[in-house]
Every structure is written in C-alpha cells, then in structure tokens.
Amino acid sequence: xxxxxxxxxxxxxxxxxxxxxxxxxxxxxxxxxxxxxxxxxxxxxxxxxxxxxxxxxxxxxxxxxxxxxxxxxxxxxxxxxxxxxxxxxxxxxxxxxxxxxxxxxxxxxxxxxxxxxxxxxxxxxxxxxxxxxxxxxxxxxxxxxxxxxxxxxxxxxxxxxxxxxxxxxxxxxxxxxxxxxxxxxxxxxxxxxxxxxxxxxxxxxxxxxxxxxxxxxxxxxxxxxxxxxxxxxxxxxxxxxxxxxx
Length: 246
Prior knowledge:
Layout: E1 37-42, H1 50-64, E2 68-71, H2 89-100, E3 103-109, H3 117-124, E4 140-146, H4 154-165, E5 169-170, E6 175-177, H5 180-183, H6 194-213, H7 217-220, H8 224-245
Parallel strand pairs: 1-2, 1-3, 3-4, 4-5, 4-6
Helix pairs in contact: 1-6
C-alpha cells in the first residue's frame, strides 16, 4: 500500500502565466539533472483540505520546473509514541520518503494560531537521526500556510522554527494564503491571484536553493560537536570490543 497521493491534472495550471515562466531556473547554480527530489507534506485530513490543495498547486509547479515530487497522505499516521517503537507502516513509509528527498514543502492550516496536530505529528515522526541516517538534515525547506481568516504568519513562523530544529536549510521566501476558501474554485484549483503568484515565487526559490546546495549539504551542516561525539562513541565501542576479547 502506497501513501503517496496521485496528483490530479499535473500539467493543468490555469492560474499560471506561462509566458512569465523561466525554464532556466538553475542557470549558473548547477545542473537540474538528476531532477530535484521534493517531498510535500500537508496538515489537514478534511475531504476539501486547503493545505492539500495548496500543496498540489505547488507540486504542479515543481514538476514544471523540472523536479520529481511526492505528496505524502497522513490519513492513517498514528500519533507519536502511540505505537511501540514507531513500528507502523505509515511511519516507515514517511521516513523512507524523507530519506529519498533532497527538499521538502511543509504546508499547514493555521488552527488556534498555530500549526495543526496532523502537521506536527508528521514532523515528530522524522527523528534527527535513526539507524545512522538523517531524514531532514541538510535538506532545503519551503514553508506555507493557509488560513480561514485574515492573513497571518503564525504557522509559517512555527514551521520555520521546526525546520531550523530539524537542521534544514529553510529558504527565505514563504507563502501565507488568507481566506483560503475564497482562493480555490469548486474544482479544487487555485484562482489567479497574488497568493498564487507567491506560491510560484516560493517554488522557484526552492528549486534554486536545492540546486545551489546540492553536493554541499553535508559540508554545510558539518558540526564540530558531532565530529567530537562520533570519535568518543568510536573509542567507547573499541574499548568494549577490547574488553570482550580480553
């Protein structure tokens, strides 16, 4: 069972002025091949989820800009610590997609002035390290939010904080869609507006930063304290091995 959503009408972007699209986004920054691998997460389980619809608009743009995308469906993701040892297929799959990715897009509704529990649960299921692997460190990140009322930046600010905590390279630009119920038609597609244009801006920037940092991410997040801790662990393991032989 795959928890990846199928993107409807990936080539249909009625709100986009294609004459203004640049097809050389990464010019001078690095090669677009292989395509940037981008994982998109959204924060609502409603049948008409505006955070999901916004993520789908972002995914279409990313494909147009030359990226490979995956949209994770969190509908059966358990709460953190609900399952012993996080041994749940949805958790395993989310982590696999995170390890696959070079970049991520996080989009949450604002609820009670904050991100939703669904959004936080997905991030909480991505540990800084497991099995010697780091599912978020060094990856680029774009943050977005949708609101039912006037424009706010509470959710994107929290997502930025979480991105820093997860040791991600969070890009400067961001998207906040106010009164989202007015911005999407009955077909689930976003109407042409300054809000849509900002999502285009953010996805362009995400592709650029992903290409710019590609091949350098490990160096950018290399830390003295972690190198020191690794040596201490190695020496401790060596001592244990020596005692066992002795």
